[in-house]
């Protein structure tokens, strides 16, 4: 028994020592970036672009590990529970670090602020509200007026209850003082089909997945959630411009690690990440998914998450949304 | 003559050495993973996707698409030979394919599925090339009420699927519907029957359920058998060639199956997995002698196989012409295009004509390659039956585990396969059919989702299901089938009772 305890003690000591050593020449081994969604989605694409750039920058392979399921909760838990040695990092998004924890509460198994080390926000993607072109409105002001004159008549489609689209819709109703019926779908694709068919009139979505149908005239964009207007749709105002500043946040994809990553490890990753995020090559590759590079400091990133959580909880409470 | 120009442009793209190679690689890989139980197109494409970021867009999608439709060819192979479906849709191939193999017609069955696959794929491809935008528009006419009505028809199909006792079949459908309830409710976000496991938020995995109930339970059952190979005789070329009768009996079923598959495949989200079940039910319904089904009826094998492959081709319609992926695999293919800066949508055909038409021509080339690839392979697959269980089944277990794990990189799903394997074993001891359960499981969540969405949109007005023409006609067909079933049951019952009655009188007189 004593022998075993001794052995455990030695092991712990060695591994502690190892952690210390790691930090000095970090990274000396393969780094895994957990993506809490399946391959092919925006988060995965951003992660893969970043992993490739970090591999070149730091000279060790950065590999992507897709752990999809439960709206990102499985992967987010895997990041939070990883060993804080810098060899397991992950992607944290507005869904996994803001909306899901606000919607699910303790059931989700992690705290978005306490259980992670926030490194930097890698990229942001604008959101958009668009309507079926048969709706007799041509801009956001007309839309709000139409909605006020027809309370409860309009339907807004979203990828599901407690999704980013649902929160955007709820916030628009709250701040715009309108009333619409929430029609949740099983994911963004079916919701897009619903609005193209005219089953629902209004659609809250990421810009990239709505854009082709907007450009084809099948969807009419009303407002963009982004700090400034987007190059693809220069005539479409931001939510802030039309007086709905609470809806104006873009979706973002950040780099995080488990809580208590050693400071020097964070510094190495942060410096490398910010350098590659601001490179021209990165800007160009992100453009393919309508994303723009961010690369803010850990404090700024953490503050974004903190205030977004507060806002989301405020909307959930004021709209009396329940999910259990 | 636009079409000829378009196809010429497509041929220019598809016939480059690079694209031909990627196409060949894709369909070959597809065939192989299709044969392996558990490892389907989803797993293979997930793994290949990151690789495609480094090759040109057209080559990438030609290859990934090849894996997808190639896997449909191979999916029924293990189902026929070993009663181990390659993926959930090929569960149907077990029903009549396996009995054929037991009757020594394994080679012929494989030959016919290849032909059926090719015909299905060709019909689907023609629909895709000629009528893409039109079909996409029809797909959009399918609102929640129409989907619900379609699912009701599907449920009736489920009750037809069962080969034995109707009441047991019904019980299995209900059990499947109940199992489909597990997971996050689409309307409210409430987690139902998840027992604190976040892994269950997305519901029970269809792949885990199918692999457990069919794959694993078959392996467990075989452990009881003696360790002798299933085929001792040498496989002759003659046993591999279908009879004229088998060909003749398959022509119309294959065409019907292609039609059903083309239609269901083109509906975003209807699930191509439905098409093979639906087509089997239709064949059983129109057959002169439905009692042959489940005992090696060739139509029961070829029609669903055509449906399956036709659906695989037409499921590209909503993906490419609307930017709406019909299922998870299509979402991956969409992702592969997006990383290359191409977002499919209504303008894809005009903005990227070489990509679109190149892909279409690659479908034609790929399907021809698949036939050439598959027919000589039949002998090799049949000889799998000569491998002793002790060597074959452990390997199968490994493949099932890899396949199920690789979808979400999650060990939870492997545990689920184990649980469903045990459950499936006891079900087969009790002669409870797993096929209706699986269809109930596929239909249940979709039915509930569309029913509630239709009611939400109609603000609770239930007449929405009969005030919309498509939904009303589908429900009318469903009502007709049910009333016909009741009427024919009554007629038969009366015949039987009069028969009994006369017999009784006779015996009294005697």
List the keywords.
heterodimer; A: 324 residues; alpha/beta; D-Maltodextrin-Binding Protein, domain 2; 2 domains; 6-stranded mixed beta sheet; 5-stranded mixed beta sheet; 11 helices; 45% helix; globular; B: 510 residues; mainly alpha; two-stranded antiparallel ribbon; 23 helices; 2 strands
Provide a descriptive summary of the structure in words.
The complex is a heterodimer of chains A (324) and B (510). By secondary structure, chain A is an alpha/beta fold. Chain A has two domains: 2-124 and 251-318, D-Maltodextrin-Binding Protein, domain 2, CATH 3.40.190.150; 127-247, Periplasmic binding protein-like II (D-Maltodextrin-Binding Protein, domain 2). Helix content of chain A is 45%, strand content 19%. Chain A contains eleven helices and eleven strands. Chain A has helices at residues 2-24, 42-58, 73-80, 94-104, 140-149, 164-176, 188-197, 207-215, 263-277, 280-287, 298-318, and strands at 31-35, 62-66, 88-93, 116-125, 127-131, 155-158, 181-184, 202-206, 220-225, 251-258, 292-293. In chain A, the strands form two sheets. Chain A has a six-stranded mixed beta sheet, sandwiched between helices. Chain A has a five-stranded mixed beta sheet with strand order 7-6-8-5-9. In chain A, helix 2 crosses helix 9, helix 4 (94-104) packs parallel to helix 11 and helix 6 crosses helix 11 (298-318). Chain A is globular. Chain B is an all-alpha fold and 510 residues long. Chain B folds into two domains: 2-467, no CATH class; 469-510. Helix content of chain B is 76%, strand content 1%. Chain B contains 23 helices and two strands. Chain B has a two-stranded antiparallel ribbon with strand order 1-2. In chain B, strand 1 (183-184) and strand 2 (191-192) form a beta hairpin. In chain B, helix 10 crosses helix 20 and helix 12 runs parallel beside helix 14. The longest helix of chain B has 41 residues, at 469-509. Chain B is globular. Chain B starts with a helix and ends with a helix. The model of chain B has no long low-confidence stretch (mean pLDDT 86). The chains are: A alpha/beta (324), B mainly alpha (510). Chains A and B meet through helix 2, strand 2, helix 3, strand 7 and helix 7 of A and helix 3, helix 7, helix 16 and helix 21 of B.
């Amino acid at each position: 028994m004593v022998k075993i305890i001794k052995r455990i003690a030695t092991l712990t000591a060695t591994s502690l020592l190892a952690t210390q050593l790691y930090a000095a020449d970090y990274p000396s081994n393969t780094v895994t970036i957990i993506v809490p969604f399946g391959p092919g989605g925006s988060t995965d694409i951003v992660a893969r672009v970043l992993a490739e750039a970090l591999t070149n920058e730091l000279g060790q392979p950065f590999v992507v590990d897709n752990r999809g399921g439960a709206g990102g909760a499985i992967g987010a838990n895997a990041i939070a529970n990883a060993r804080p040695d810098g060899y397991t990092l992950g992607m944290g998004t507005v869904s996994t670090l803001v909306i899901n924890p606000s919607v699910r509460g303790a059931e989700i198994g992690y705290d978005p602020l306490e259980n992670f080390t926030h490194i930097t926000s890698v990229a942001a993607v604008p959101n958009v509200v668009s309507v079926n072109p048969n709706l007799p409105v041509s801009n956001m002001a007309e839309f709000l007026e139409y909605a006020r004159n027809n309370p409860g008549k309009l339907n807004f489609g979203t990828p599901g209850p407690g999704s980013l689209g649902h929160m955007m819709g709820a916030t628009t109703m709250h701040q715009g003082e309108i009333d619409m019926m929430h029609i949740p779908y099983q994911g963004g694709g079916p919701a897009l089909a619903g609005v193209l068919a005219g089953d629902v009139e209004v659609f809250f979505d990421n810009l990239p997945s709505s854009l082709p149908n907007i450009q084809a005239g099948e969807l009419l964009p009303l407002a963009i959630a982004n700090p400034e207007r987007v190059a693809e749709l220069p005539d479409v105002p931001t939510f802030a411009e039309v007086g709905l500043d609470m809806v104006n946040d873009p979706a973002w994809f950040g780099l995080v690690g488990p809580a208590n990553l050693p400071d020097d490890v964070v510094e190495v990753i942060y410096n490398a990440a910010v350098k590659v995020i601001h490179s021209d090559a990165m800007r160009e590759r992100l453009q393919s998914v309508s994303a723009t590079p961010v690369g803010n400091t850990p404090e700024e990133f953490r503050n974004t998450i903190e205030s977004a959580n507060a806002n989301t909880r405020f909307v959930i409470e004021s709209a009396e949304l329940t999910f259990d | 003559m636009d079409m000829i120009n378009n196809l010429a442009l497509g041929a220019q793209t598809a016939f480059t050495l690079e694209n031909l190679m990627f196409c060949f690689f894709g369909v070959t890989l597809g065939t192989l993973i299709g044969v392996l139980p558990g490892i389907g197109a989803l797993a293979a494409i997930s793994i290949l996707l990151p690789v495609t970021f480094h090759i040109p867009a057209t080559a990438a999608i030609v290859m990934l698409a090849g894996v997808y439709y190639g896997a449909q060819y191979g999916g029924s192979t293990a189902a026929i030979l070993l009663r181990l479906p390659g993926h959930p849709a090929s569960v149907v191939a077990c029903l009549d394919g396996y009995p054929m193999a037991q009757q020594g017609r394994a080679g012929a069955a494989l030959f016919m599925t290849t032909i059926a696959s090719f015909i299905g794929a060709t019909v689907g491809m023609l629909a895709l090339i000629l009528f893409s935008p039109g079909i996409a528009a029809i797909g959009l006419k399918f609102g929640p009420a129409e989907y619900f009505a379609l699912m009701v028809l599907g449920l009736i199909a489920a009750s037809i699927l069962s080969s034995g006792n109707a009441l047991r079949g019904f019980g299995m459908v209900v059990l499947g519907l109940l199992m489909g309830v597990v997971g996050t409710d689409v309307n409210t976000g409430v987690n139902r029957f998840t027992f604190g496991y976040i892994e269950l938020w997305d519901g029970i995995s269809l792949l885990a359920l199918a692999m457990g109930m069919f794959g694993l339970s078959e392996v467990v059952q075989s452990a009881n058998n003696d360790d002798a190979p299933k085929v001792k005789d040498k496989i002759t070329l003659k046993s591999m060639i279908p009879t004229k009768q088998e060909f003749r009996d398959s022509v119309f079923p294959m065409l019907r199956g292609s039609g059903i598959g083309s239609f269901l495949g083109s509906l975003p989200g209807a699930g191509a997995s439905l098409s093979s079940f639906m087509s089997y039910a239709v064949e059983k319904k129109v057959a002169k002698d439905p009692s042959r089904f489940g005992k090696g009826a060739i139509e029961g094998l070829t029609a669903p196989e055509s449906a399956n492959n036709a659906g695989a081709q037409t499921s590209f319609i909503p993906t490419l012409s609307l930017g709406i992926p019909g299922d998870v695999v299509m979402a991956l293919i969409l992702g592969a295009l997006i990383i290359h800066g191409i977002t499919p949508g209504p303008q894809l055909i005009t903005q990227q004509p070489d990509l679109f038409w190149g892909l279409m021509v690659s479908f034609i080339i790929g399907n021809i390659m698949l036939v050439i690839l598959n027919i000589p392979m039949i002998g090799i697959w049949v000889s799998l039956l000569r491998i002793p269980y002790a060597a074959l089944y452990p390997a199968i277990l490994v493949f099932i585990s890899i396949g199920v794990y690789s979808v979400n990189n999650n060990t939870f799903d492997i545990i689920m396969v184990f649980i469903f394997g045990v459950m499936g074993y006891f079900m087969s001891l009790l002669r409870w059919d797993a096929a209706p359960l699986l269809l109930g499981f596929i239909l249940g969540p979709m039915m509930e989702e569309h029913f509630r969405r239709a009611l939400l949109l109609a603000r609770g007005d239930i007449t929405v299901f009969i005030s919309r023409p498509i939904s009303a006609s589908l429900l009318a067909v469903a009502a007709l089938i049910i009333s016909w079933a009741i009427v024919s049951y009554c007629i038969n019952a009366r015949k039987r009772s009069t028969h009994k009655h006369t017999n009784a009188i006779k015996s009294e007189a005697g």
